[in-house]
Amino acid sequence: MSEHTTHTSNGNGAAAEAAESIPAVVIPEHRSAAAERRRRYPYRFPSDRRRLGGAFDVAEGSRRLQRFFYFERRLMQALGAWTLTIPEFEVKLETGRHIFYHGDAAWMLRERLKEMEHRVKEVDSFRDSEVDQLIEETLSAGSAAELLVGVHQVIGRALETAYRHHIDDTDSVTDAPTIRCLRRLLTDYEPMLRWAEEAIEAYVQGGVEESGLASWRWHLQRLLASIGGVTGADKRTEPPTPLRSTGHPFSRGTVPLRDERFDSFKNTGDYDTADGQARFAKDSYENLRLRFIRTQRDEVDAIEAFGTFIWDIRFKDFQSEYDLARITWDEARHTEIGHRALLACGYDPFELKNRLTGSTCRGPMEPAFAMAEINLFGEVGVLKTISGLIDTAAERRDDLLFHVADYIRADERTHVRKGQGIIKVMTDMDAKSLELRTRELFTECLVSLGVVKKDMDVFTVTREDIEHLVGE
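RE: above sequence
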């Protein structure tokens, strides 16, 4: 263990002075007997070089952790709000992962605050208008590149530094649980921030004006400094003016964006129709196999869905936000699985058209109905067919499909269970009414996209149709 320099606050300093003013009463024969027992003891274990004493008492330490928690919760929400609007595949996918990293950081800090005698309702209801202003300004980024600058290079980097300083400054003995918590957070921060640096460099190398990113970085750094940094305890400076968010408050996007490598479609739910020809016979195993793998790659739209839900239900229920963050990460993994499986099958993933039907319908929709579609129709639909596909893959010794589908099945079962609780936070409608209204809304959307005929009604488009047409 590393040796830390001992710092004392006013509270700890007073305690230390009190301890020094009370002399130890030593009984000589007891001390010499203890020394002799130590001398005879055969084992020489590693020395614990930690020192008692630190910069924070419980009140100040927990105040800082509460602010850290709030930053992490707000970053989870903020990244969720941008998932539809990020065009670049790799950045959208990585953002799905980072949403959970921040959500998990918030969860761990929340657990530590509970141990430090904070009521969970008080932790969850905490708000900070200064942090909110910084997040709103960060959300006003003009591009995904600017978003990465704000979230990672400004706020993320400042949080990483604050966590390291807190580890160094708090009492390494009495506050060891906080140190362990923050060290665990840093295991995610290190690769996340490293990736962000490389991604921003890729934007610059690809033609994004570096001076514009530098100007935006400086602007947000000044705004962060004006609120006392992430701890709120640093020297405050004058805030920059003007703020983008003052003139144009942030409103999340509703249209799913893709980068130029994608050839996308939304006017059909069928891959063969979109492709203009069938690669395999309609009901063949080969056709079902390719459709399943393509559907996983196209779960890039599920990153958009669940990330957006986090933003849309922000502050209603932390557990639901956290569950959505985990599902978002799972969907990012499914997208990776689909992309890599297509490569393993001999395809260039970008030669296969990307289906936008689901996100196009869900983007503008109220969260309860959008969530009901993806949970009640999409994920339940997958569970209806995936076990049979896995069994067939095993019979045919198709190790690739068996391997990936087995993991995906486990994820989808978990999502269906968690989704039921999330829906209850989103709406108080009964299940039957919710399903019917969701079918109505999706039928209207599918008609507007030309996916189904105008003369079809909600009772003509069955739940199985929606499961197939949207394809989650």
